[in-house]
Amino acid sequence: MNKRKACSGKMNAEDKENWSFEPHESTLKTPLKQAATSNWLLAEKPPPASGHLTTPPKPNEISPGDPWTPTANLKMLISAASPEIRNREQEKRLSDSRNEIPEDHLSGDEYEKSQPSRKEKSLGLLCHKFLARYPSYPDISKNNEICLDEVAEELNVERRRIYDIMNVLESLHMVSRLAKNRYSWHGRHNLKKTLQILKKVAEENNYSQQVELIKRRQYEEEPEGDDQKIQLMAKHVRPNDHTDICFVELPGMEFRAVVNLEVAAKILIGEDHVEYLDKSKFKTKIRRLYDIANVLSSLELIRKVHVTEEKGRKPAFKWTGPDVFSEILAAQPVSTPTATASSHPAEGKSSKEHCSKNLFPTRSKQGFIRHPSLMKLAKGAQSNQRKIRSAPSSPVKKNASQIPPSFPSKMAQLATICKQQLDEQSRDFKKRKMKLEHSTFPSPLGLPPKTRLKPKPFLLPSQSEILPLIHNSVPPAMLPLHPNVPYALYLHPSQTQLVTAYNPSFTVRPVHCANVAGSKSTTEPSSQVAPGKIFIEDSGSNGEGSASCAKGQDLWLAKEQEGTKDDVVHERHFKRRRMEGSPMKKCASEEAVLHDVLLGASVESKKSRCPIASRLDQETLTSSAVKQSKSEKTDQHLEGQPTQQRQGEFLEPDSVTTVQEMPATFAIATHKTWFPSGYLIPLPHCTKLGNETIFSNKEKAEMCAAEQKSYSSPIAGGIPVTSEFTAVNFPAFHIAPVNLKLPASSVATVPVVNGTAVTSDQADSIQAPSASVMNFTLQHLGLIPANLQMSANQVLRSGPVCQGAEHVGFKQEKAKQNVLPPYGDELNGKSVSAASLQQATVPVTSSILDNCHDFQASCESAVVPEFCSSFHESDRISQATLAIPQREHGVSTEDKF
DNA sequence: TCATCCCGCCAGTGG
DNA sequence: CCACTGGCGGGATGA
């Protein structure tokens, strides 16, 4: 059949089978399209009359010109599917015309030429043929059995190739294995749910973060100068098919739009070890990804695009499948393995389970082995999930309607507690506060003192207690964080001095707005919104790590003066930092920041065992936040509820800011306007995984030393982080590339337990309310679906539940209403269609069966997961294409199909 | 030259 | 035991 075969003379059973065109012994059992009587026309061949077995006609044997032959229909279908296939068909026709000559009469060369071209034998085309045989939505009551042998024979391919397709389809639950050599066809009945589940899995495994991380690293490794890099940052996909592809300019989305196979392979293998792996291994992985990608392309779940980069034109894939984001919220949480996307009776086991099984090397059978570094992430997620599952009475939140009624009361009680402390401590602060308010620092955003930062005295690290310091009228957004973990807080520049005044140990660093360039938002009413960010780090616990950050303030000041409007300044700032030879130079790179936006700090932070890394990530987050804030201004509310409006609902005249008073302190100073806030990031938490950093060895050593000093990383062999918070799968803490959207009046306080000394009671007292607040916060952060509630047990496995204040309930309600996550707002602001989001490209996976899940999941995760929450009407919205004017330069992308 | 991916070997699995 | 399954990598093909 092919050269190799012809030359080697090898011919195995399959070969013989393929060579044979003898009538099949059995009646064709393969279900053909049932939707309409004409469905079978789409199949490779019509259903044979019962009892009349016919030799499966070779495609070439059927006149290509007959519009009513199955082959012709298939060709029409395929041709309509894509230009490339059309081209293939054209080539095929040429081949067909050659094939009209009996092969027996062909010479050697002619025989060679008569053979179908490589393209004609591609897996993608084969998959098209295969899919054309079956209805997308078969009657599940019927016996939709697929016999691989028959299919292989009918399609004139080796059974091995059918396996390639079936494996992918099986992972999508489009088919299920009935028995050896037999599958059951389910069509797309379960596809959407499966995708949702896979998306969930992707989220759990932080694929999106990994993608971002790898991309970022790839980018950083490029030798281009700053200017070039900046230019590259503006690159984006511009598919030629503008009707269904929209580049989404969102924080972190710039480079997310297309994920190439290299990135996917690195994720699958584990980027850390890629360099150590045999290149052939990598190549193999890529090959598998091609296989999967071809099948998924045939399923129209992904689309191949080409992105022109500095290194040339690179292929990549973007998600073009159904929008599952709006429905992902209803998907079963991971903690419920019993949840299944399978609606088909044939699928007895949980899809989720199935996905998980294939995602994680738990099955006895040797499957695709996740790279150790990846396993860390995966196991971490698993562990968290396990804990959540194991939690007694872990309620499963499926939708907003199931929000535990106790939530408001919890919040209220917490708020009450906070209020009490606030009242007490505010007195002590009064003097200092007043002093600060009249300091050289201008009033934050020109707001009346009433609305300014209302800090509270920081407690010493030894003071292990909850410090829910919030204004009486404002529910706190509390994030349970590890006590021993240094936290990063992003504040408005005008608040930094205030903060540092409270605690000299805090390290304040400027965080430039990475996304300023190319994302000007001149119409922004609130230009004061985060022109720059100040990173406050508890140097007390990480003194070493702050050194490189000291330079920041002056820079920030400059930034503050120039505002966000000045891209040049931004770039200058960026360059300056780089030129300073800071150990953070890499992290500080503009692209790094951009890349981190959606990715969040998670992966990178995990890899980098130092606060600096986290800091950088936070910078990214801040950048994201800045961008986010900008987008908010132009929020066009896909949900019909303008962000501004929603925001306004949160605004309270007597907004007051509180300051977290903790060893690992952070607080969100607020002002009477919306601003990207609330990046409460437990730095050490990010260092649990990985050991690769972008820092020098010396820096690593220092950082590690600092880290161990402040806390112990389980991986480092130290005392495991005791906080139960870390047991919860909250990549949010790493990522948080979001605009917290806290009202100006809102305050983010973080209960911090003092290290291992925290007693269970203490923990409970902290965690219980925190769980509620965390839900709220996470929802705002877009890190969990707005309608998804994690119980205290789930989140914290704690007991006591706070009861109390009503305004918390209001907040929660708002949280529920504001299903639009930060990205959604960004989305709105950019008038981005859901479709474009969906089409943000995908990482591809390998190992056809197992890794198809990865692929799928990655595809899903390629888009900010929480985008989904923004598109309840995604199906409709996704069809709308809204042009995104910005970033039309730099990269040209063309669809392969 | 490189991206793409066909092809089939072969080891593991399971009836 | 043997067919099925699918991981894997050589190397052909096309741009």
Task: Explain what the structure shows.
With 897 residues, the protein is mainly α. It has a four-stranded antiparallel beta sheet, sandwiched between helices. Strands 1-3-2 form a three-stranded antiparallel beta sheet. Strands 5-4-10 form a three-stranded antiparallel beta sheet, covered by helices on one side. Residues 1-105, 223-257 and 328-897 have low confidence and may be disordered. It binds a DNA duplex (15 and 15 nucleotides) through helix 1, helix 2, helix 9, helix 15 and strand 5.
Helical residue percent? 40-55%
Terminal residue distance: 28 Å
Mean pLDDT: 43
**Number of DSSP helices?**
34
Pfam family, one: WHD_E2F_TDP
Biased composition (Polar residues): 619-628
Main location: nucleus
Biased composition (Basic and acidic residues): 12-27, 85-118, 346-356, 629-638
In short:
The protein has about 900 residues and is mainly alpha-helical. Helix content is about 40%, strand content about 5%. The protein has a four-stranded antiparallel β-sheet with strand order 7-8-6-9, with helices on both faces. It has a three-stranded antiparallel β-sheet with strand order 1-3-2. It has a three-stranded antiparallel β-sheet with strand order 5-4-10, with helices on one face.
Helix/strand layout:
Elements: H1 3-8, H2 13-19, H3 39-42, H4 70-81, H5 83-99, H6 108-114, H7 123-132, E1 145-147, H8 148-154, H9 159-171, E2 175-179, E3 182-185, H10 191-204, H11 207-221, H12 226-233, H13 261-269, H14 271-274, H15 279-298, E4 302-309, E5 312-319, H16 325-328, H17 351-359, H18 372-390, H19 406-437, E6 487-491, H20 496-502, E7 506-511, E8 533-538, H21 552-562, H22 567-579, H23 590-599, H24 602-607, H25 611-633, H26 643-650, E9 681-682, H27 697-710, H28 760-781, H29 792-795, H30 807-817, H31 822-830, H32 834-838, H33 850-861, H34 874-877, E10 893-895
Antiparallel strand pairs: 1-3, 2-3, 4-5, 4-10, 6-8, 6-9, 7-8
Helix pairs in contact: 4-5, 7-9, 7-15, 8-9, 9-15, 10-17, 10-33, 11-13, 11-23, 13-15, 17-33, 19-20, 19-28, 19-30, 23-25, 25-31, 28-30
The protein binds a DNA duplex (15 and 15 nucleotides) through helix 1, helix 2, helix 9, helix 15 and strand 5.
